[in-house]
Amino acid sequence: MNILDKIIIDKKREVILKKSIIPVSQLEASVFFEKKTISLSDNLRNSTSGIIAEHKRRSPSKAEINYSFTVEEVTKGYENAGACGISVLTDGKYFGGSLDDLLLARATVNIPLLRKEFIVDEYQILEAKAHGADLILLIAAVLTRDEIKSLSEFAKSLGLEVLLEVHNQEELEKSIMPTLDMIGVNNRNLKTFEVSLDFSKQLAAQIPYDFVKVSESGISSVEAINELKPYGYKGFLIGENFMKTDNAGKAATEFINQL
Q1: Whole-angstrom Cα distance, residue 255 to residue 84?
Q2: Averaged confidence pLDDT in the chain
Q3: Is 73 a residue of the active site?
Q4: Which own/partner pairs from 152-155 qualify as long-range (CB within 8 Å, at least 24 positions apart)?
Q5: Is 189 among the catalytic positions?
Q6: Which of 54, 117, 127, 171 is catalytic?
Q7: Catalytic hit among 43, 217, 234, 240
Q8: Which residue out of 79, 117, 171, 216 is catalytically annotated?
Q9: Is there a catalytic annotation at residue 41?
């Protein structure tokens, strides 16, 4: 069993537990439930940098990245740097995140927030909306076509945008549907953790123009972004590169200024 399989098994258990503690009615009563969402896809289309900066404390591939910042410091720094949006990891066991991180980010910034999570159930989409997210991530590697369809339709019914993450041709082919806004190519193989920009380059031509193309993971230089832009990529998700520094906001500012 690979790490992704383990995460999904744990996630399904976690959702069952959460459902038993916090009813849907409580999530729907959140002050953010009626909030108009901010479009990340529009921001990316109109941006020259396309940076989606990530708040990430740790990951299965890198035990600890950074625990010394507050969510407010990081997200405010990213907003000031000119990021198009912010990805907030909410998985606790493997990434050290929480829904409270999303809530704190929402209270701090006024740019699009992605709930970065392993979504397997509509309940998690309600949680995302209730905690101030503007969009959700769906990972093709762990969902069937029918699941991608029903989850993306549900997200759209709540006014949330959908970023679908793929890693290969097969995942892309099963996933293309009108309820997606952005298609992200993960340069990191979630099963082996091998990283290569070739994944983004190889799949670029297969992604229809209706969707904003996003390249995720393993992007650590301005050169990498300049290499990917001719392939039609408008968004670039960067986390570790900023989080491993002493000042994530400053690192993001310098990076975006170079672009």
Answers
A1: 13
A2: 95
A3: no
A4: 152/177, 152/179, 152/180, 153/179, 154/122, 154/125, 155/125, 155/128, 155/179
A5: no
A6: 54
A7: 217
A8: 216
A9: no
117 is catalytic: no
Active site annotation includes 56? yes
What the block records as the tokens of 102 is 């999303």
At 81-110, the pLDDT tens digits run 999 999 999 999 999 999 999 999 999 999
250 is catalytic: no
* Closest by CA position to 28, among listed 156, 126, 133: 126
pTM over 0.85: yes
CA dihedral 62, 68, 73, 78 (to 10 degrees): -20
Say whether 216 is catalytic: yes
Residue 68: per-residue pLDDT: 81
Between CA 127 and CA 58 the distance in angstroms is 22
Candidates 11, 116, 129, 234; catalytic one: 116
Q: Do 75 and 112 form a contact (C-beta atoms < 8 A)?
A: no
3-state secondary structure of 166: strand
Using CB atoms within 10 Å of the CB of residue 242, give its burial: 0 to 12 exposed, 13 to 18 middle, 19+ buried. Answer: buried
Structural contact between residues 119 and 162, judged by C-beta atoms closer than 8 angstroms: no
Percent of the chain predicted with pLDDT > 90:
90
